[in-house]
């Protein structure tokens, strides 16, 4: 993740431990779908946009960059940044990257709009960010 993105997330969130789970953090970001339900009928609508607009914008832009390129391939710059980092965190981040890239490409092949696919990836990215920041690397 870019340094500017990380700084923005930390400045806007301050304490990731205040969220009990990843879903709560995604909701804080305004990236969860709204719902119109009655009895046995469940209809998901657009994202709520009730959360922090700065974090939401940063995560959507990060998702757009994440889905570019070959699935699972890391550049030289990223490899050099990861050189002396914790192996568990790097493995978690690599797993997240591959999963999100594959999910994006599957959605596009199914005919899902690019904007919707990017928003879905941004929501799941927020969950991975919460996991890294709180130490839930499983």
Structural class determined from secondary elements: mainly alpha
Report the major sheet.
2 strands, antiparallel
Shape: globular
Q: Measure the end-to-end span.
A: 19 Å
Plain-language structure description:
The structure is a single chain. A two-stranded antiparallel sheet has the order 1-2. With 138 residues, the protein is mainly alpha-helical. α1 packs antiparallel against α3 (53-66), α3 (53-66) crosses α6 (114-134) and α5 packs antiparallel against α6. It has helices spanning 3-13, 22-29, 53-66, 76-81, 87-110, 114-134; strands at residues 33-38, 41-47. The chain has one domain (3-134). The chain starts with a helix and ends with a helix. The chain is globular.
Question: Briefly, what is this?
Answer:
This protein is mainly alpha-helical. The protein is built from 6 helices and 2 strands. The model has no long low-confidence stretch (mean pLDDT 89).
Topology diagram in text:
Elements (H helix, E strand, L loop, with lengths): L2 H11 L8 H8 L3 E6 L2 E7 L5 H14 L9 H6 L5 H24 L3 H21 L4
Antiparallel strand pairs: 1-2
